[in-house]
Amino acid sequence: MTTSEMSAGDRPSPADDKLDRGVLKIASVVVVGAIMAILDTTVVNVALQQLTLEFETSFDTIQWVATGYMLALATVIPVTGWAADRFGTKRLYMLAIVLFLVGSVVAGMAWSIESLIAFRVVQGLGGGMLMPAGMTIMTRAAGPQRVGRVMAVLGVPMLLGPIAGPILGGWLVDSVSWRWIFYINVPIGAVALYLAWRLLPKDEPQPAGRFDFPGMLMLSPGLALLIYGVSDIPAAGGIGETSVWLPMSLGIVLIAGFIVRALRVENPLVNLKLFRDRTFSIAAITMSLFAIAFFGAMLLLPTYFILVRGETALRAGLLLAPQGLGAMVMMPIAGRLADRTGAGKIVLPGLVVILAGLAVWAQAAADTPYWLLMVSLFVLGLGMGSSMMPIMSAALQTLRKKDVAQASSALNIIQQTAGAVGAAVMSIILAALLAGKFGVETSQGQLAATAALQNPQTHDAAAVLAADSFASTFVWSLLLVALCIIPALFLPKRPPAAPPVGDDEGAPTPPMLAH
Question: Which site among 13, 61, 260, 463 is 20 to 30 Å from 154 CA-CA?
Answer without folding.
Answer: 13
